[in-house]
Amino acid sequence: MDSIEKAMLGRIRSSDGASVISPSPPPSVAAAAATADVIERTAGLAAAPSGVTVAKPAAVRKRTQRSVTLDLEGIQAAGMLVPDTRRSRIKEEYRHIKRPLLMNIDGKGAITPEHPNLIMVTSARPGEGKTFTACNLALSIATERDRTVLLVDADVVKPSVARVLGFEAEVGLVDFLIDDRLDLADVLVDTNVPSLTLLPAGGRHHLSTELLASENMRRLALEMSRRYPDRIVIFDSPPLLVTTEASVLASLMGQVVMVVESQRTHQNQVKEALALLDPQQIVGFVLNKARDSFGSDYYGYGYGYRYGYGSGDRGAAEQ
Ligand SMILES: Nc1ncnc2c1ncn2[C@@H]1O[C@H](COP(=O)(O)OP(=O)(O)O)[C@@H](O)[C@H]1O
Ligand SMILES: [Mg+2]
C-alpha cells in the first residue's frame, strides 16, 4: 500500500476539522509492540535480533546524519542558551520557564496530566518565537542532571530547528510517519550535548501537516510517553491559528507551552488559539521578546499558567 495512503487511513480528524478529537481505538497490540521495539532499540535498551537485516530506503543512507556536533559558540552568539556552567540571564529565565513543566512531570504540580513528559511549544501565529523557545527549553532541560531530552521539529511545513541549531537533516519525522521501513533510530540525531537528541522534521510533502493528526503520530507520541517517562519530548509545532492539525497534535500532549509575542500577539489571537485546545489542557505561557523596564533589552520572559481554561475562577492566565 502506498505509504501516504497508509498514513491517511489512520488519520484522526474531527468532522469539522477543528479541535475536537474523537476518541480513537487503542493501537493494536502488534502495532504498539512494533513501535515499542523501535523505540527500545533506539534508546539502546535492547539489541536488534542478530541475523535480521532491515532494508533501509536509499534516502536515509544518503541524507541522514546520525549525530551532529552542534556549534555551541554559534548558538550562543545567536542569543540562545548553551549548556555550560556559566551563568547568564537567558539561563535564569529558562530556569523559571522549565520549573513548572518539570514539576508537572514529577507529579508535583497542581494537576497531573496524562503524558506530562510530552510538551508542545506552540503559538497563535508564525514568527512569535516557538522555535526559539523550543530550542532554548530543550537546551535548558538537557543541562539538568538525570533528564534526557528529545527535541522534535513538528513544524513540518516550516521546519527550522535544524537551521537554528546549525545542522542539515532532510530525513525525519515526516519520513518516519509515512514509511514503515524506517526505524525511529534512522531519523534521530544525537548531539554533542549528551542528553539532547533531535528529531528533525524531515522531507517536505503536501500531506505533511495531515500526518501530525495521523494514527501513526498518535501511536508514536503514546509510546514516547509510556515507555520512557523520564525522557522529556519537546515538540516545536505549527501555529495553532494557521494549521488545524496543530490542535490535534496538542491533544496528544501532556503540557502545552503557548508563546505570546510581547507587543505583537493580540489578546484575541491568544483567546482564539486557546479555544482550539482541550479545556482541560495544561497551558503555560511564555511572554517572548518582552523588553525590560529600561526598554533596552530585547529578551525577557514572563510565565503564567492556565489550568482548565474556561473553568471559572481558574480560567485566567496569571502573569
Ligand atoms: N526572545 C527572542 N530574542 C531574540 N530573538 C528572538 C526571540 N524570539 C524569537 N526571536 C527571533 O524571531 C524570529 C522568529 O522566531 P521563531 O522562533 O522562528 O518563530 P516561530 O517558530 O514562532 O515562527 C527568529 O528570527 C528568532 O530568532
Ligand atoms: Mg518555528
Structure overview:
With 319 residues, the protein is α/β, with parallel strands linked by helices. It has one domain (3-314): Rossmann fold (3-Layer(aba) Sandwich). It has helices at residues 3-9, 29-42, 58-63, 72-77, 89-105, 130-142, 161-165, 173-178, 184-187, 208-212, 215-227, 244-251, 267-275; strands at 67-68, 118-123, 148-153, 189-191, 196-199, 231-236, 255-261, 282-288, 302-306. A 9-stranded mixed β-sheet has the order 1-4-5-3-6-2-7-8-9, sandwiched between helices. Strand 7, helix 13 and strand 8 (282-288) form a beta-alpha-beta unit. The chain is globular and about 50 Å long. The protein starts with a helix and ends in a 13-residue tail after the last strand. Residues 1-56, 295-300 and 307-319 have low confidence and may be disordered.
CA radius of gyration is 19 Å
By CATH, the architecture is named: 3-Layer(aba) Sandwich
- Number of contiguous helices: 13
**Structural classification:** alpha/beta
Principal-axes shape call: globular
In helices, the fraction of residues equals: 25-40%
Mean pLDDT: 77
**Cofactors and ligands:** adenosine-5'-diphosphate, magnesium ion
CATH class: Alpha Beta
- Which spans have pLDDT < 50 for at least 5 consecutive residues? 1-56, 295-300, 307-319
- Write out the CATH superfamily name: P-loop containing nucleotide triphosphate hydrolases
For the report, how would you describe the main beta sheet? Answer: 9 strands, mixed
Total beta strands: 9
What is the first-to-last residue Cα distance? 51 Å
